[in-house]
Amino acid sequence: MTRAVWKKPFAKKNLFKSLFFNQINKKSETMLIRSRDCVIFPSFIGCTFSVYDGRKFAYVHVFDTMIGHKFGEFVTTRKRVAHKKKTK
């Protein structure tokens, strides 16, 4: 049995709870996520999440092509290096 068979998709329970309350109250608040390993489910389509990258929260708007991926794939954690140019 491969690992993908017995290992289920992970998502925090409070994500579903806050999504449920937002749909009941017809609010479109952004939901904060600190765990980047949560899997994106079909019920998250159209919602905006704030994913923590180690320094700040980055906004991620969920589309239908993102289903099955993890939130961490859409937020960069490393700063891009910009070398100084030499002056003559």
Automatic annotation (TrEMBL):
One of its GO terms (molecular function) is structural constituent of ribosome. GO terms for biological process: ribosomal small subunit assembly; translation. Keywords: Mitochondrion, Ribonucleoprotein, Ribosomal protein. The keyword Mitochondrion applies. GO terms for cellular component: mitochondrial small ribosomal subunit. Pfam families: Ribosomal_S19 (PF00203). HAMAP family: Ribosomal_uS19 (MF_00531). Belongs to the universal ribosomal protein uS19 family. This is Ribosomal protein S19.
